[in-house]
Amino acid sequence: MSDIVRLSVSLEEDLFAQFDRYCREQQFATRSEAVRQLLRETLTTHAWESECQDAAGTLTLVYDHHRAQLRDHLTKLQHDNTDLVVSTLHAHLTHDLCLEVIVLRGPAARLQKIAAQLRGLKGIYKGELVMASAEHQ
After folding, report:
1. Structural domain of residue 128, as residue ranges?
2. Counting Cβ atoms within 10 Å, is residue 114 exposed (0-12), middle (13-18) or buried (19+)?
3. What span, in angstroms and rounded, lies between the C-alpha atoms of 30 and 51?
């Protein structure tokens, strides 16, 4: 067995409460076990997806449209990657929140890179990339 390394994570109170509820509902022995499983699942998916050369996917973002310069960053990144961006859907959820769905197609590693750049911007509350192989199996 590997050595155990401790990790400290800062969470908003409501996110922590949701995670705690998830741990109970899924009957994890500990929060650490839940985090380990979520990390393993994410890393396994990442490894598979980064190999595919013809992937299609959607990147769904929920963000605060009042955040300074966020909209400019979103637009610039999409314009810098017009070879991968197929289309974009924008919807207003509330006065403060917007939903954007970006349809992407290209090498999986590049799609993941764009998704990571966008999800990492300040003001993004939720970012989820769903991908599928567009290659013949």
Report:
1. 55-133
2. buried
3. 33
Amino acid at residue number 31 = R
- Other beta carbons within 10 angstroms of residue 43's beta carbon come to 10
For the full predicted model, state whether its pTM sits above 0.85.
Answer: no
Structural domains counted in the chain: 2
Q: How far is CA 54 from CA 58, 62, 73, 111, 125, in A?
A: 14, 26, 26, 10, 28
Beta strands in the chain, from DSSP E residues, in sequence order? 55-64, 85-92, 97-106, 124-133
Strands (DSSP E) found in 7-78: 55-64
Asked whether 104 and 86 are in contact (CB, 8 A), the reply is yes
**77 located within any domain:** yes
Among 19, 41, 40, residue whose Cα is nearest residue 30:
19
Find out whether 54 and 43 touch, Cβ atoms under 8 Å.
no
Residue type, 74: L
Segment 75-117, tens digit of pLDDT: 998 999 999 999 999 999 999 999 999 999 999 889 989 999 9
